[in-house]
Design a protein that fits this description.
heterodimer; A: mainly alpha; about 80% helix; B: alpha/beta; 14 helices; 13 strands; about 25% strand
């Protein structure tokens, strides 16, 4: 269970940093947005089993291919939402900020990012819930996570249900808990921004 | 003083402003007015370099605006736009504090300034400071917009159709308040509108533009209404310009016939009244004559003929 959490935490940390940065870049350059969003969407269509297998060719068996794969999966929702959040900021708000003498960086850090936070968080939340579940498949390439009991159950004649439940119940618990916590954070940081989201 | 010296803005396929030269004197409200697409907003935005001119030069107090750091330049110029553009995640007080914060004022000074500004625009700080923009009416939002633009006490204020999206009654009140505010703060204000009545009401001077930023006429409202320089100007001014002009002139501004020996009329009007009000009084008076009173003293007598003479 701890390994499972650890894998998810590492992936989310890397994916959030990279995804937000990518999202900011593609919010500015539409041409790049088409390419990057296409690539990240394509990654998401590769079955996890195949992706982990493929990655294990380069990074070996165990946790590493799973960590790399999950990070790639988490990238799309975060990148896409960051871009959407930035683009949703009213142009007049940005114009006023520029007109008052904020530099591009100040406009980003003081106006655009704070206003995009709820949307970015929604992406992070979606990605987290998704990879908590997908991580179980990682057991197939030797990751020491909650997929282990599930995989060992396959093909057995007795005790199958117990083993599968031993994997599924904690995974579901982690997923639900993470979702609730992130939803709370999202609500907390969305105060006063609801109006923006609505318009 | 803001000087446009042969300023132009050309895009790949169009000319927004061809060749604009004019001077905006300190402490005056100058209105850029004209039909949509005449380049008035482009001209305004070239002052704070949100749009960079492709030819010519704009100077403020003799300094080329391009020689200054663009962000520092903008902090010295208040900017108000039609959509207001308040930061929705910040309170009214935080919005108003934006420029002082950027300028690095200390907390105490910012706090005092914010209260002063909110009072100035008629929003009591106790009630409004902690509200979010979403909780305000359109008129209140634009007041916050004006307070925010005045944040660090800039000598210049640019206003781009600030009251365009506000209902007529609130707009009229905001216009009156701007004039009251201007008597207190005495800024150099450049104000864009497509509404000639707003221009006549607020402007010390009006720059009337046609397509491509062509300056059709640059004059005081009274001069503009009395002597339109072209058919375009006359067309843009619309109906009844001489009657509208009467509101701009007070009895004190004009030469009045002295009371002759004849009997003084019973009706009276204050010398501070406009010619329009005086004409109204004349039309109401039984004998078509009204005495003009200044601080309790009769300084003249007006009738329809006198008003006609005075309005030329």
């Amino acid at each position: 269970m701890w390994t499972h959490l650890q894998i998810v935490a590492i992936c989310m940390a890397v994916a959030t940093t990279t995804g937000v940065a990518l999202g900011l870049v593609v919010a500015r350059w539409q041409g790049l947005a088409t390419v990057i969003l296409a690539v990240t969407s394509t990654i998401l269509t590769v079955p996890s089993f195949a992706l982990f297998g493929l990655l294990s060719i380069w990074v070996g068996l165990g946790n590493p291919p799973v960590e790399v794969g999950l990070t790639l999966y988490a990238l799309l929702p975060i990148t896409r939402n960051t871009r959407a959040g930035i683009l949703a900021v009213e142009p007049s708000v940005v114009e006023a900020a520029r007109g008052m003498g904020m530099s591009r960086r100040q406009v980003l850090t003081r106006v655009e990012l704070p206003l995009a936070v709820p949307v970015v968080l929604a992406g992070i939340r979606q990605a987290t819930v998704m990879i908590v579940a997908i991580a179980t498949v990682g057991a197939a390439v030797g990751a020491n996570d909650l997929g282990q009991p599930i995989f060992t159950a396959i093909g057995r004649s007795t005790g199958t249900l117990d083993r599968v439940l031993a994997g599924i119940v904690p995974v579901a618990a982690i997923g639900i808990l993470a979702d609730l916590v992130l939803a709370g954070v999202q609500r907390l940081l969305s105060r006063g921004r609801v109006a923006v989201a609505a318009t | 003083m803001i000087v446009f010296d042969h300023v132009g803005k050309r895009y790949a396929e169009s000319v927004a402003v061809g060749d604009l030269s004019l001077e905006v004197r300190d402490g005056e409200i100058v209105i850029f007015v004209g039909p949509s697409g005449c380049g008035k907003t482009t001209s305004l935005k070239m002052i704070n370099r949100l749009v960079e001119p492709t030819s010519g030069m704009i100077t403020i107090d003799g300094r080329d605006t391009r020689s200054r750091d663009v962000n520092e330049l903008r902090r010295s110029i208040g900017y108000v736009i039609q959509q207001v553009g308040l930061f929705p995640h910040l309170t009214v007080a935080e919005n108003v504090a934006t420029v002082p914060r950027l300028a690095g004022w200390d907390r105490q000074r910012i706090g005092a300034r914010v209260e002063e500004l909110l009072d100035l625009v008629g929003l009591p700080p106790q009630t409004y400071a902690k509200r979010l923009p979403a909780e305000l009416s359109g008129g209140e939002r634009q007041r916050v917009g004006v307070a925010r633009a005045l944040g660090a006490d800039p000598p210049i204020l640019l206003m781009d159709e600030p009251f365009g999206a506000i209902d007529p009654i609130a707009r009229d009140r905001l216009q009156d308040e701007l004039l009251r505010l201007q008597r207190v703060v005495r800024k150099t204000i450049v104000f864009v509108t497509h509404d000639i009545d707003e221009a006549v009401k607020l402007g010390d001077r009006i720059a009337l533009m046609s397509r491509g930023g062509a300056l059709e006429q640059y004059a005081t409202p009274a001069e503009l209404l009395a002597h339109p320089a072209s058919a375009f100007v006359e067309g843009f001014l619309g109906e009844g310009r001489m009657v509208r002009r009467l509101s701009l002139i007070t009895l004190r501004d004009v030469q009045l016939p002295k009371p002759d020996g004849a009997r003084l009329p019973e009706e009276s009007v204050d010398a501070g009244a406009s010619l329009r009000d005086a004409l109204d009084a004349v039309l109401r008076a039984p004998d078509g004559r009204v005495q003009v009173v200044d601080s309790g003293q009769v300084i003249g007598v007006v009738d329809a003929e006198a008003i006609r003479e005075a309005s030329r």
